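Quick log. Single chain, no ligands specified.
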Amino acid sequence: MKFKYSVIDSSQSELDSLPRLPLSLYCNNQHVEVLGLVDSGATINVLPYEVGVQLGETWNNQKANIPLAGNLGNLHAIPLAVTAKIDDFEPVRLVFAWVKSNDVPLILGQTNFFMEFEICFYRSRLEFEIRPR
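-> predicted structure:
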């Protein structure tokens, strides 16, 4: 299934387009529609704080702390597993580093988004393709 690169603000140009994927997340009988940045350079999936709250989760400092690196290295993160649905594909279980910040995008990274899907980027055509593994 192919998807177009997109911008998040109409003032942005085509050069600002990134591979953003619409998906549905399910947890605790809650459902949220989100856009995830498909990032082959990200080690793990990252979930902004507010999305976890919308999914009915409560922040619990007693859970395992996930150490993050790079720009996210100063944020606290705990594991959160949710069910994800992309278009007509079968639902998959994705594990996120749920961060206590809303200043980060939802990131789909190597662990475990890229373990569940085969992704091909066609930047020159501003599109990407996803197939279940």
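Residues 49-54 form the longest helix (6 residues).
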